[in-house]
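Predict the assembly for these two chains.
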Amino acid sequence: MSFVQDLSSSPDSAALIDFSPEASSLAIRGLSLAYGDKPALRDLTLRIPRHRVTAFIGPSGCGKSTLLRVFNRLHDLNDEVVRTGEVRLEGEEIHGPAVAVAELRRRVGMVFQAPNPFPMSIHDNVAFGLRLQGGLSKRKQDDIIEWALRSAALWDEVKDRLRASAWSLSGGQQQRLVIARTLAVGPEVLLLDEPASALDPISTLKIEELIRNLKTHLTLVLVTHNMQQAARVSDYTAFLQDGELVEYGPTDTLFTNPRLRRTENYITGRMA
Amino acid sequence: MRLAKRSRARLPRGEGAGAWLAAGSVALSLLALLALLSLLAIRGLGHFWPASIALVALDDGRQLAGEQVREVPLPDGTGRERLYRIGNRDLDGTRWAWVPVSAIAAVSHPPELMVLERHRWGEAIGRLVAVESETGERLEGQAARAVLENRMTELASLRQARDTLRDEVVLPRVQALQEGGDVERELATANARLRELQAAMQAGHLTLETASGERWQVPLDQILRVRYPNAMSPLDKLVVWGEGVWRFLSEGPRAANTAGGVWPAIFGTVLMVMLMSILVTPFGVLAAIYLNEVAHQGRLTRLVRIAVRNLAGVPSIVYGVFGLGVFVYGIGGSLDEWFFDAALPSPTFGTGGLLWASLTLALLTLPVVIVATEEGLARIPDQQREGALALGATRLEMLTRVVLPMATPAMLTGVILAVARAAGEVAPLMLVGVAKLAPQVPVDADFPFLHLERKFMHLGYHIFDAAFHGGDVQAAMPLVYATALLLVLVILVLNLTAIFLRHHLSTRHGALSRR
């Protein structure tokens, strides 16, 4: 049995590709979500492959950020949200009664559009998640902090001023610090919600390089408005429109040879 | 500060008039503040300066001696008249004299004129004739001065010994006796010693010749201090002025609040404000957190928020009535019935006191703290909250570790506003616990050290009382000014403390204000 199943021969499916349950990290089936009576996601079904970069693209309001936030249950905060369907992380339903939401969020980390370091020192920002878990010796904690900052390619820039305020860093550094902070708690999946949209081109390149390096041991899901960015860093791309999954396939295929007219219009910029 | 920053970014050309208008209003506000403070400072602090004593000879041959207070035009416009503070109230029935300037033949400042500060009746002014001891020994002239000075030092130490004995030996014993302790013999000894001291103080008197030539005997133990203002150098006067200011700050009031110091009132004001802050901060902050972070943001929450904001506009006397009805009579009365029934019918908590006053003011300032904290919480970006949650923090951890530290400066702003409002509030206090005279401060060495049920003095009420309820308003006026200045300073110090604290907290992270 192959891990990757090519579906290009079946014309009624939106997906060009499917992954076997063994190869996927997240499995979404029949997921619908509405804010009050306003639907945001309609009956989505897709699997997200492990240790790959998957990009969600689509026009504003298409539901790609909403989908991302389902994966670590940030919608729990909003009592207006109505959701049906299932989302499995490594085979386990994340909305199940036995799932502790704090534990889930440690396994599924998230980086937001605008850098949001806490008003603490650089060191304390990275230590934040570790301190919530507790039970770590000071030494072990410092080791993890160094490892996380190195993984986020920030260590060399901040190693001499770990006690300085995180808000004294530049925007790009702040975003990498936020990534380091998320990596420190040891997630399996990293959700990135337009992580470079507020950054300058050089910082953007650094973040993209970081994303490519991280996929050796992490599953990454990236939401972006930037088509080139999706093409540069992702292995698979899903195109969403009006809360529906329009097309999902290997990035190369989707960008060079989209199967549907809607996809082609969007990626070539001919959207109404 | 903010205004200064704004003025750096100049208004564009053509809006010059607007800029002048804005700058003018700032200048006007500053001037008004400055005028207020200098009036209080000059009138209040000037009172402690030992002014020269003028010996005034009138056309008709009469003489009077006193300190010139002011000179005003006569009501009929025919000239001017002067007000002299001539003291000797028990002798003449008044301590003031209005003299038309036209009736004055000569004014001199003889150096031998003496001012006696007395325990009662205010000051006495005249020439020292003689000092007589109990045994009839009589000294005159320079020798009298010397012996008087010695006697004053002696009296001061006797007074101190008496006060120490009374406060540290007798009063605790009396209390122990009431509680059934076996201390009667100790008390008798102490009382005997007290009587001895009292007797030692009563020895002797001095003879004074007033300006009008009357001879007058003044018992020595009535005299607090002796001065010869006309013979003093400016430096001596400065020392006396400093001592006067210090006594004003450190002593209790005398003579129905028209003389003496205001220490119990300072203490009461500060203690009450601090208790109020301790009570209002947790309640206000918790309410704001509930409204902003926990409650469902629906119509009901909006309604509650509007109600809270409107509470800030309720007149303070209404809170006073509420405090009297609910805290004093309701809760205090019940407490008395349950725990202090031995003392009934005299109330313990069922009457105004420090606790009820602090609680009433806490209630009064609660909306201020809630509104300020809520505004601080609303300013924190949601990304900060989501960032914490995304790292696996529970809502409580998110609140305590990220949101509350970021909202601390806003909370302190609320407390600053609350302190500023509470420290100057007088009307509700008159109903719930302030006293005209409570020389015992509510903190002492007796268990439980802080006596929440006691009545206390307050600077604001002290001003009101001294200005309108004293026998001699003219004499109390300088003290009213000085007390008002002090009240402003106390509020300033309380505010500065809170501002310093806020600044300290908000700069802990250097660039925090960059956003």
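The interface with chain A takes residues 296, 381, 383-384, 386-394, 397, 401-402, 405-406, 509-512, 514-515 of chain B (CB under 8 Å). The two ends of chain B are 18 Å apart (CA to CA).
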